[in-house]
Amino acid sequence: MKRLQFTCLILCCALTTICFSQKKESINIVFAGKGFTEKGKEEGSFTFLRDNQQQVHFVHNGVNVYCDKAILYKKDDFIEAFSNVRMVQGDTITMTAKYIEYSGKTELAFARGDVILKDPKSTLTTEKLHFDRAKQQAYYDVSGKVVRDSSGTITSKIGRYYMQNKKYQFIDSVVLVNPEYTLKTKRLDFFNDSGHAYIFGPSTISGEGNDIYCERGFYDTQENFGHFQRNAKINYDDREVIGDSIYFDRNLNFASATNNIKVTDTINNSIVKGHYAEVWKAKDSVFITKRALAITVQEKDSIYMHSDTLMLTGPEDHRITRAFYNVKIYKKDLAGKADSIHADHKTGLTEMINLARFNSKDPFAAKRKPLLWNIGNQMSGDTIHLISNVKTEQLDSLKVFNNAFLVSKDTISDDAYNQTKGKELIGLFKDNELYNVDIIKNAEVIYYSRNGLGELIGINKSKSGSINIKISDNDIEEINLINKVDGDLSPESLFPKNANRLRGFDWRGDERPNSVEDLFKDDPPLNLPIIKGLDDYVPPEDFFDEDVRQRVEAAKPKDPKKENKAARNLPKKKKEEKPSGN
């Protein structure tokens, strides 16, 4: 026994002397319980075993290898380490496995069996791992898992770790699982120190109450926010947000979108479009501007509303839409214009409001009254209320408060207008067409009365307490003056030309939108910001590149019959692949 220990000691010293006598540092054995030449093994190889207290210990260029058993191939400067193997580089990198082989000539290591690579912030586990100490890179292609406490767990089929940049690159079936969300993507670049993740290819981030899709993106896994491009969209419970670029903050439950935005409310069958939007999920709020357009989708005829700014608030069963500044409405049989609109989707009430900043008390601005057109009728007043049947999605009635005015063009004359005015107006609809109008208080009327042949009988100009008008096929069928004050039917020849307009008359038919495109005709030119986003994905250099293969080739034994151990786990050279746009 003593002789064996003495022989081992002499061998260790001899190996140490050999190592230090060479110009390039070779693998050096620091400790072994036993050392011997094993029968049946390659000539020149030495087998080392641990003792009861310490493992076998090797060192090479700052890396330490510990194991229960090792075989050193001195001429090849190559070791095989077995059982409870631990490779330690400095004070930052530790790799453990059942088996590790390492070449001192190439500085390439290969680990197999329950492989674990640790640094201060992450732990990588896989079954097989290549470690290039010269380039400070690790690589697996048999599926692996990285655990980072603050970010979660990342799995992929192929992975690479750049130790100098502290960057992981995951490829193929990448899944990041965090307690708050799950990220699935085709390719992911992940920076270990910052927790920044760069997403390439079709990707989803699924969390409680929200799902994100994009084909390019960035996500800060520590601060829980990110931005996404290329077919980007967020599903917020019953809302879908689409835009050229989307920003999302998970902590605030907030999202904003830029350029070509579309927000779809699947519960209330509505769509909002624009070029800048903000969504506050906790507040059930959507803010959208830059050519904002709200579409209430109906089975037969959708309603379109455009304004400078739109806000949708409230839970799914009680949505409120607010539109500000130069609001226009278009429907096949209805159009409107107002400074501001407030619509309650639960009650079916739409309020068209005249903003205070444009009222008559402002000496620098003319009063701008809301307008509503139905078929050929123009209605105006200080405020207009439209009431819809929320079940049938049809207009039920309208109310005009203060300075109510109803105007329609005479069917034949170019410059003749049927006019009715009063303090308030109440209109009733059937099949979305106005059929009954009541003018209440201080009512006045000018009406061009014609016979069945369209010939003008006379012009009726009257005043009364109130007026009831029956309308059919866009023509006034009957006028009833209630509590008539004065007025008569006069022939056109006896009717004064300067009396053919009621006070406050304002025909604004040229402002009426006659199509969806007309809603935008007064808008200034739109200049959208340029969104660069992430560059196209550039495939990395092959881990087993020309440099690695040259090092392996240089490690070849002089005897061509002998195995080049450094090439054992080197894969065959792949054919060149075309770069992918994803």
TrEMBL record:
Protein name: Organic solvent tolerance-like N-terminal domain-containing protein
Renumbered residue ranges of the record's region Disordered: 545-582
Domain of life of the native organism: Bacteria
Pfam families per UniProt: OstA_2 (PF13100)
Domain spans labelled Organic solvent tolerance-like N-terminal: 54-185
InterPro entries (UniProt xref): OstA-like_N
Composition skew (Basic and acidic residues), residue ranges: 546-566
